[in-house]
Specification:
With 124 residues, the chain is mainly beta. It has no helices and eleven strands.
């Protein structure tokens, strides 16, 4: 059982930055494709970014390309999401997710484990 714990959410103004972290409890973390998703009350959960187990392959949703950066530190079993130039439409609860094996396309990602989420609010 992998347990994921996000942190780093908060409230910022338009154009601001936040860095989310997700710490994994499982030693097998290094063999997982990790992801960040986000969700608002009126929308489906949306895939934001994926990163391969090695960290060398990443992919992003079109809505965040050029503004968000996903990374991971396998030694620390920690996943990150650096979010720059935040916009009000980025406001959501952000979740990290894990699945074993290689990464699929974002739309095909099926998580085996989810974190509890961290809230990001961007005000104009």
């Amino acid at each position: 059982q992998v347990q994921l714990a996000e942190s780093g959410g908060g409230s910022v103004q338009t154009g601001g930055s936040l860095r989310l972290s997700c710490v994994a409890s499982e030693f097998g973390y290094s063999g997982t494709c990790m992801a960040w998703f986000r969700q608002t009350p009126d929308k489906w959960r949306e895939g934001v970014a994926l990163i391969s187990s090695s960290g060398y392959w990443v992919t992003y949703a079109d809505s965040v390309k050029g503004r968000f950066t996903i990374s991971r530190d396998n030694a620390k079993k920690t996943l990150y999401l650096q979010m720059n130039n935040l916009q009000p439409e980025d406001s959501a609860t952000y979740y990290c997710a894990a699945r074993s094996g290689t990464c699929p396309a974002i739309r095909d990602y099926q998580a085996q484990y989810w974190g509890q989420g961290t809230q990001v609010t961007v005000s104009s």
